[in-house]
């Protein structure tokens, strides 16, 4: 433990130095496949240690089951500048696996407590906590990190962060004249997730490799029980609990919005579900089951979290130091029946709303919206007959034109010059009945030829 | 990678000074742009974006069936589209009190595509079609209002008459249960 107490001892950095100051059979020598062209080759040097200690900023998103493991792993690996963001407070039920928290911490912000604990335990590390939803931070804030590691529990939050990180990517023109992502603006994401004995680790290079939105179809929609089953023909304890939660409570307290974390509410649902279960002769309604159903709790196993977090931290380390090839780009960990951990590569979706390459079009700033849409119809890459358009941060609102029932609300925009609607280089999101999904259209203003009299 | 990172810092600063990128989009919203722009005007369906044209995520659908038990009535459904759309289904509540086996007194609607059979390929148009179908063909097999379902299954004529009577509005007793329907027509 002496090595942890003295952050400047050579011993503390012996292992990291071995990995970063010499090449070896595992060092990355351009084996990144097609991700980077030309490949980025590992150059061993002592500065790498200084870099991860002092300069490389890592963001850990979520300070729960995975987050606690991640913070510990990253700090011990030598990352010296860590930020952690989490909007939750500590619940007593977290303590069995979220090992940075103690009984006395119940009710305090997870991010704050986790940061305090890690800084106390691992000397020389700065962990900056942020107790807020991820949506409260802006693009500039996210731009400040070298890598982002996600330990989240919802698709919604992953989707938001993924879209944010893709929006930070700038494009440049390659030597071959192609529009390519500027790699200096690409901030890699490492995503971990667990459920019971299963988990996954995934790396995302926004706009370079498959992003979260590219593969959104792979997630099955949340399982929902038919409302009529809950109301009339319950067959399981969960049906009885859902009845009390979704039907009885709103009926009894039409104005109240229940706090799912409130023990009084959980008890209310439990007693009412129990009554219903008795009536239908259904066993198995317990307070714990009630909490599980109403809070949609998925079983968490500490060792699965440890395995997945360790893999995530290793990937973050490899990505930042480049000392070995990183995961390209998905690992499944299946420990439910024996152990099986395949890796495979998600492919990009060229039509992805979030990271698709998009189509670039040039138009004079005084072009009217009508004329722009005519160009979309004529352009052989688009051939859109009835496009609807929107742009984030539009000067007169985000929606530029809508077909169908709302069309009359937007006809006034048709004659406006596009420079009054958006800036040059803006990305328009175009939908059209003839195209599945949507198209990203980048409109660059070009000066119209001046005809000399 | 360190080279890339130091390059990153320089470029990052320059870029931050310039325009800060294209802005982040909400994918669910783009999907709604597509769904709403492709909605067809239909007889017996009125759609109201009550927060104005800029809010596509909250609207009301008024369905006026011209056939079936509920012909002649007007039924307003409140639709709230979650940010996770189309991964998750829109939330639909019936705001008009109606005697219908698949709609309860709180306005909960039992329609398979809104819950267990929701698929991200479904659209707002499919949801509206589902609601139209529900008003056209009440289904006694999946009851939310048991009295209505039992009556429909046991005596269709009595059900038809009860619905018709409910359209006159005012307090009404059905099988010992008090209802207060709005006047329809």
Automatic annotation (TrEMBL), chain A:
Residue positions of the active site: 228 (glycyl thioester intermediate)
CDD domains per UniProt: Uba3_RUB
UniProt pathway: Protein modification; protein neddylation
UniProtKB keywords: ATP-binding, Ligase, Nucleotide-binding, Ubl conjugation pathway
Coiled-coil residue windows: none
EC number: 6.2.1.64
E2 binding domain: residues covered: 361-446
GO terms assigned for molecular function: ATP binding; NEDD8 activating enzyme activity
Keyword Ligase annotated: yes
GO biological process: protein neddylation
InterPro entries found in the cross-reference section: E2-binding, ThiF/MoeB/HesA, ThiF_NAD_FAD-bd, Ub_act_enz_dom_a_sf, Uba3_N, Ubiquitin-activating_enz, UBQ-activ_enz_E1_Cys_AS
Catalytic activity: ATP + [NEDD8 protein] + [E1 NEDD8-activating enzyme]-L-cysteine = AMP + diphosphate + [E1 NEDD8-activating enzyme]-S-[NEDD8 protein]-yl-L-cysteine
Gene Ontology CC annotations of this record: cytoplasm; nucleus
Superkingdom in the source lineage: Eukaryota
Leading EC class: ligase
Function: Catalytic subunit of the dimeric E1 enzyme, which activates NEDD8.
Family statement drawn from the similarity comment of this UniProt entry: Belongs to the ubiquitin-activating E1 family. UBA3 subfamily.
Name of the protein in question: NEDD8-activating enzyme E1 catalytic subunit
Provenance organism: Chrysochromulina tobinii
Organism ancestry: Eukaryota, Haptista, Haptophyta, Prymnesiophyceae, Prymnesiales
Automatic annotation (TrEMBL), chain B:
SUPFAM superfamilies: UBC-like
Alphabetized SMART domains for the sequence: UBCc
Residue ranges of domain UBC core in the record: 27-172
Keyword Nucleotide-binding: yes
TM region positions: none
Pathway assignment: Protein modification; protein neddylation
Keyword Transferase listed: yes
Any one Pfam family match given in the protein's UniProt record, by short name: UQ_con
Entry annotation: catalytic residues: 110
Sorted UniProt keywords: ATP-binding, Nucleotide-binding, Transferase, Ubl conjugation pathway
GO MF term set: ATP binding; NEDD8 transferase activity
Family to which the UniProt record says this protein belongs: Belongs to the ubiquitin-conjugating enzyme family.
Protein name: Nedd8-conjugating enzyme ubc12
């Amino acid at each position: 433990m002496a090595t942890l107490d003295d952050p400047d001892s050579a011993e503390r950095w012996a292992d990291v130095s071995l990995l970063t100051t010499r090449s070896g059979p595992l060092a990355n020598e351009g084996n990144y496949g097609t991700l980077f062209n030309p490949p980025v080759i590992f150059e061993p040097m002592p500065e790498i240690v200084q870099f991860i200690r002092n300069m490389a900023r890592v963001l850990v998103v979520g300070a729960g089951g995975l987050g606690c493991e991640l913070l510990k792993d990253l700090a011990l690996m030598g990352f010296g500048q860590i930020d952690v963001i989490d909007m939750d407070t500590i619940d007593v039920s977290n303590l069995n696996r979220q090992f940075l928290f103690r009984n006395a911490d119940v009710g305090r912000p997870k991010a704050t407590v986790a940061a305090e604990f890690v800084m106390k335990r691992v000397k020389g590390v700065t962990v900056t906590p942020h107790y807020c939803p991820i949506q409260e931070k802006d693009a500039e804030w996210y731009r400040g990190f070298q890598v982002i590691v996600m330990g989240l529990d919802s698709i919604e939050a992953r989707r938001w962060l993924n879209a944010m990180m893709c929006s930070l990517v700038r494009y440049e023109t390659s030597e071959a004249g192609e529009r390519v992502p500027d790699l200096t603006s690409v901030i890699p994401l490492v995503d971990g997730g667990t459920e019971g004995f299963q988990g996954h680790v995934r790396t995302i290079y926004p706009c370079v490799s498959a992003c979260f939105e590219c593969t959104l179809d792979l997630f099955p929609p949340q399982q929902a029980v038919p409302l009529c089953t809950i109301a009339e023909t319950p067959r399981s304890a969960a049906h009885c609990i859902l009845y009390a939660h979704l039907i009885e409570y709103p009926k009894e307290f039409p104005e109240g919005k229940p706090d799912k974390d409130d023990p009084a509410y959980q008890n209310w649902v439990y007693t009412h579900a129990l009554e219903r279960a008795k009536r239908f002769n259904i066993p198995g309604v317990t307070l714990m089951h009630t909490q599980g159903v109403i809070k949609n709790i998925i079983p968490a196993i500490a060792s699965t979290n440890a395995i997945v977090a360790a893999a995530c931290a290793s990937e973050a380390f490899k990505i930042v130091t480049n000392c070995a090839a990183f995961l390209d780009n998905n690992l499944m960990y299946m420990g439910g029946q024996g152990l099986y951990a395949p890796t495979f590569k998600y492919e990009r979706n060229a039509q992805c709303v979030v990271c698709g390459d998009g189509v670039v079009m040039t138009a004079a700033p005084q072009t009217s919206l009508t004329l722009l849409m005519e160009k979309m119809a004529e352009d052989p890459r688009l051939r859109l007959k009835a496009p609807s358009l929107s742009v984030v941060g539009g000067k007169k609102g985000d929606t530029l034109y809508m077909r169908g029932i709302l069309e009359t609300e937007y006809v006034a925009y048709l004659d406006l010059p596009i420079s009054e609607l958006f800036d040059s280089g803006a990305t328009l999101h175009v939908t059209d009945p003839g195209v599945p999904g949507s198209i990203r259209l980048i409109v660059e203003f070009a000066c119209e030829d001046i005809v000399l009299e | 990678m360190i080279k890339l990172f130091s390059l990153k810092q320089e470029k990052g600063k320059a870029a931050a000074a310039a325009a800060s990128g294209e802005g982040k989009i909400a994918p669910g919203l783009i999907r709604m742009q597509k769904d709403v722009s492709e909605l067809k005007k239909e007889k017996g369906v009125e759609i109201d974006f009550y927060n104005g044209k800029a809010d596509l995520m909250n609207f009301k659908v008024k369905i006026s069936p011209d056939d079936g038990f509920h012909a002649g009535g007007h039924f307003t459904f409140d639709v709230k589209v979650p940010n996770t759309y189309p991964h998750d289904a829109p939330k639909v509540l019936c705001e008009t009190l109606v005697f219908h086996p698949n709609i309860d007194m709180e306005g909960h609607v039992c329609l398979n595509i809104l819950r267990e059979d929701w698929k991200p390929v479904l659209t707002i148009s499919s949801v509206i079609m589902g609601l139209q179908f529900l008003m056209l063909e009440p289904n006694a097999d999946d009851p939310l209002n048991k009295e209505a379902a039992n009556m429909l299954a046991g005596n269709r004529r009595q059900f038809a008459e009860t619905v018709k009577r409910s359209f006159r509005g005012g307090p009404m007793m059905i099988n010992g249960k008090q209802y207060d329907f709005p006047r329809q027509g």
